[in-house]
Each structure stands twice: as structure tokens, then as C-alpha cells.
Specification:
About 45% of the residues lie in helices and about 30% in strands. By secondary structure, the chain is an alpha+beta fold.
Length: about 230
Amino acid sequence: MKKLYLVTLIFILITSLQARENPFEPTTSYEEEQARLMEMAEVEQDYQQEFQKEQQYIEETYEKMQNVGKGKEEAKEDTLTEDKIKKLIQDAQKKTVQKTKEIVEKAVEPKKTEQIVYVKPRLDVMYEKEILPFVKIEYDNDKIDILSKYKISKKITLPEKNKIVLDFNANENFYTKRVDLESTNFKRIAVGNHKKENFFRVVIELSSVPEDYEVTYDDTKVSIVKLYQ
């Protein structure tokens, strides 16, 4: 009985070993997986080729667009340059015509002569100034009157300095006064005090030598008049 059981067990083991698949023998699942991987590789390769073709197509299209745009831009620049040249020529022609017209008009137009008008000083304008409370002058271009309540005591002429000096008897206290005159023949007048000597002095500066003037006086006024030949 034990022998029969042992034989039966051995037979089952042998049968089981024969029924087990060879691990190195390709199975259906392996073959299917290998086919799937190969298919994926082919698809990947096709995709890479298609991607490269697409990229090449895009690059070629972009390059063509640039060339077309560049050609249009060059053509546009050439057109603008030509238009600018035409406009510059037209502007130059207009300027030339206008310049020529101005030159002709200037040559034909009569020259305007500048007129210099000499205004002769008015002889009838009299100026009055009070130099001191007791000395007043009235003058124009040809005459000056020195008016004072004091009497004249002396007259002196200084030809080298173009001056006439008049002394008046008085006992006054004042500082020297100088006045510029708006006259063509009398420049200025000065009044200085000599209190210690009891007089004050009036000096008239002239435009020429004293011999060209006439001096007359009375108790209240001294008149100096310019003489003309």
C-alpha cells in the first residue's frame, strides 16, 4: 500500500513538472507586450519625423514671410526715396523761383534815401532857475540874465577857460552851488561865497571865448548875449 502511494506521488510530481511552463519560452502576454512596445517605438519615431518636418515647414514658412516683408519694405523705401527726391526738387525749384522774384523786385524797387532832419534849437524857449534865494537866472540858447537884489561890483573875463566872472557885494552865508545849463552857448554856472570879503562870485562857463559875448548890467540884472558875425 505504501509503495502504491509513493508511486502515485512520484507520478503526480512528474506530471506536474511536465505541465509547468518554461520560464524562458515566450508567452502570449510577452509577445503582446513586445508588439505594443515596438508599435509605440514606431509611433514615436513617426512622431519625431513628423515633428521635424513640421518644424522645418514652420522655419521655411517664416523665412519666406521675412523675405516677402523685406522685399516689400525695400520696395516701399525705394518708393519713398523717389518721392522724397521729387519733393526736394520741387521745393528747390519753388525756392529758386521765389528767390529770383525777390532779387528782381529788389533791383526794380527804388532805393529809399534816409533823410536827416536837423532840428534847430528853439530860440524862444526860456529856462528859469533859482540858484539861491537871492540869485535867479533866466536863459535860452543865446542869452542869459542873472538877477539879484545885490549890485555887481566887478566883471572879469578868462579867455583861456572860456569863462566870465561876476562879483556881487553881499554878506551872505551859503555853500557853493553849481548848475548845468540846457543851452548851446552857456554850459554851466557856479555861485561861490566869499563872506570874509563881503561878496559872492558868479562864474559862467561859455561855449567859446568871452570875446564872442556881450555883457551889460544894471542894479538888478546882468545880461550876457552871444554875438554872431
